[in-house]
């Protein structure tokens, strides 16, 4: 054997290793090709998992009157049935997103579906208002595991930016489908079964999502596998719980009472501690530097304020249909269906409008439409009309769809795909936090105003009946068959008057929140987005930035410059995310 020539056995071994490595590479390529080919089936199953939560968020509203009658729930307990779920849900989203990134998103999704279905069964057979509130809180744990993983898996499945924007539009539209199926399905169930059926219906949906997801949903996780942040999670949970407790209990216990003031101060202190810790922690649950990117921060603020108005207005509107207009649960669900139709149209349509006009102007247009509709919500004449009210609610849903789909894509598109779980969790946390604040703040203002109006109009009404009428309009309606006809007529008229007058106060406040969101969008949300270098490099076909821009349909991009420009004073620019140089080639 000549000097320097490898032995025959060594050559054979090297060839074997090369062959095995090539086989592994080919197998990986086949797997990636299969995953790419069935990506739309993956989206369908993710949307089914999402719809479970969407249905649950709205189906409870139509069951509230029967829950009041069967469980004797007070007005504050009704709010807690909504907010116990939402508080736990919103508090755990960041933790669930980080766990999914760390240990696998498919595993987190399936675990969440199992918990959600099991706790839905517990809620269905609750024997008291307190038990139902507890079951709803446990459902929030499952929901927190489901919601962020659907969007993070979607982001990692659709690697092409154009398809990803389309998929997010569909994802947002399915939220509208849940909004529709919740009240309609709930109303239909309540026509034939007891109130617990609105929770039991979640079980077959969870089973279908679990079985189908096992076969078509790919697994993914963050390759960096950063450490967890348990202290940050505890601080965020305590902060949100304290603040929301103060907002919900303020009308009952008094805004200056010791429990309310104490809860608010503790919540605010924990929120400040959370911010400090996340800025100094080596492996933060939420890197607050992400908020330096206006695409991330402005879109997050916009979604928070939008869902503040959406959840708060829906909570009050459903009670208006049933308690003031006397509609059955099924008819009340039918009356809210136009909102869902608008959402299903607006979400998938938004990406095309964004390509033409830019994110800033599409979102602002959607918010303007939402604000105008909220002002109309305050009119009993308009909302009691089947035709006028239906058109208003349709436009309201359309505006929500045009707002949330581009804002969601803005959040997800501003982060590396490895951080999709955290990005999705932030997106979902803004939604749920805004929704919880909407129900708490608007509900509290409404309750305080309702009581201040009705207190002076119950002279001559028996004390027990008067106390029930002061609690809520649901309690007022519940005592009508227990008092003489003349007294019942007085209570009915006073309660309706107080409710309608309170609508005139609360809905303009909701519209003001949306107007603030529009101002934030105009000032800070970039009209045109930049494509991050690491996202361009991740594309399988390694297209150049210019080709990527053309593929998305963004020929009207920012002017070509050799490096990223700073955001313009009017908020029209787009700064890159933390430590992510960007190429200003596209617009969204």
Report on this model:
With 588 residues, the chain is an all-alpha fold. Helix content is 77%, strand content 1%. It is built from 21 helices and 2 strands. Helix 6 (161-192) runs antiparallel to helix 12 (329-357).
List the helices and strands and how they pair.
Elements: H1 8-37, H2 39-71, H3 75-103, H4 105-124, H5 129-157, H6 161-192, H7 197-200, H8 202-216, H9 230-253, H10 258-280, H11 294-324, H12 329-357, H13 359-377, H14 380-383, H15 386-413, H16 420-454, H17 463-471, H18 473-478, H19 485-524, E1 531-532, H20 533-538, H21 545-552, E2 582-583
Antiparallel strand pairs: 1-2
Category from helices, strands and their pairing: mainly alpha
Q: Tell me the series of helices and strands, N- to C-terminal.
A: HHHHHHHHHHHHHHHHHHHEHHE
Q: Strands of the biggest beta sheet: in what spatial order?
A: 1-2
Q: What portion of residues belong to β-strands?
A: under 5%
Radius of gyration: 26 Å
Compute the number of helices. 21
> What's the end-to-end separation, in Å?
65 Å
General shape = globular
Q: Can you give the helix content as a percent range?
A: over 70%
Sheet with most strands: 2 strands, antiparallel
- Mean pLDDT across the residues is 74
Low-confidence stretches: 9-14, 16-30, 531-588
Overall number of strands: 2
């Amino acid at each position: 054997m000549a000097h320097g020539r490898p032995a025959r056995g060594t050559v054979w071994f090297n060839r074997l290793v090369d062959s095995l490595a090539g086989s592994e590479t080919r197998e990986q390529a086949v797997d990636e090709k299969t995953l790419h080919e069935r990506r739309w089936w993956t989206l369908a199953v993710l949307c089914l998992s999402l719809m479970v939560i969407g249905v649950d968020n709205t189906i409870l509203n139509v069951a509230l009157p029967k829950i009041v009658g069967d469980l004797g729930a007070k007005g504050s307990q009704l709010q807690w049935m909504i907010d116990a779920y939402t508080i736990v849900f919103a508090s755990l989203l960041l933790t669930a997103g980080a766990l999914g990134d760390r240990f696998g998103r498919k595993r987190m999704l399936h675990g969440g579906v199992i918990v959600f279905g099991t706790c839905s069964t517990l809620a269905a057979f609750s024997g008291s208002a307190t038990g139902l509130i507890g079951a709803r809180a446990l459902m929030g744990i499952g929901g927190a595991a489901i919601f962020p993983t659907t969007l993070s898996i979607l982001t990692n499945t659709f690697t092409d930016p154009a398809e990803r924007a389309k998929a997010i539009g569909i994802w947002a539209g399915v939220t509208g489908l849940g909004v529709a199926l919740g009240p309609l399905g709930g109303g239909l169930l309540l026509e034939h079964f007891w109130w617990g059926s609105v929770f039991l219906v979640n079980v077959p949906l969870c089973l279908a999502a679990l079985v189908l997801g096992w076969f078509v949903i790919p697994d993914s996780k963050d390759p960096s596998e950063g450490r967890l942040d348990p202290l940050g999670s505890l601080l965020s949970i305590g902060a949100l719980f304290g603040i929301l407790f103060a907002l919900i209990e303020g009308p009952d216990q008094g805004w200056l009472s010791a429990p309310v003031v104490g809860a608010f101060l503790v919540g605010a202190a924990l929120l400040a501690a959370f911010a400090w810790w996340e800025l100094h922690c080596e492996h933060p649950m939420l890197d607050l530097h992400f908020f330096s990117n206006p695409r991330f921060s402005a879109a997050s603020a916009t979604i928070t304020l939008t869902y503040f108005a959406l959840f708060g207005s829906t909570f009050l509107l459903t009670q208006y249909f049933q308690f003031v207009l006397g509609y059955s649960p099924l008819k009340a669900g039918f009356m809210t269906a136009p909102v869902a139709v608008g959402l299903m149209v607006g979400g998938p349509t938004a990406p095309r409008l964004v390509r033409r006009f830019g994110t800033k102007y599409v979102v602002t247009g959607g918010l303007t439409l939402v604000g105008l509709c909220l002002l109309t919500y305050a009119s009993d004449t308009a909302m009691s009309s089947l035709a006028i009210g239906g058109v208003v609610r349709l436009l309201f849903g359309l505006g929500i769809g045009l707002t949330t789909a581009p804002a969601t894509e803005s959040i997800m598109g501003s982060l590396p795909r490895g951080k999709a779980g955290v990005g999705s969790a932030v997106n979902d946390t803004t939604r749920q936090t805004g929704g919880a604040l909407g129900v708490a703040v608007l509900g509290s203002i409404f309750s305080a105003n309702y009581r201040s109006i009705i207190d002076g109009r119950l002279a001559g009404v028996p004390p027990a009946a008067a106390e029930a009428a002061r609690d809520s309009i649901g309690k007022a309606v519940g005592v009508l068959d227990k008092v003489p006809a003349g007294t019942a007529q007085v209570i009915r008229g006073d309660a309706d008057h107080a409710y309608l007058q309170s609508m005139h106060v609360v809905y303009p406040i909701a519209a003001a929140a949306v107007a603030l969101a529009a101002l934030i969008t105009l000032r800070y949300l970039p009209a045109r987005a930049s494509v991050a270098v690491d996202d361009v490099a991740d594309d399988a076909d390694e297209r150049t930035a210019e080709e990527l821009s053309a593929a998305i349909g963004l020929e009207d991009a920012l002017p070509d410059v050799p490096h990223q420009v700073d955001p313009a004073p009017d908020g029209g620019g787009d700064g890159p995310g933390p430590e992510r140089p960007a190429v200003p080639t596209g617009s969204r």
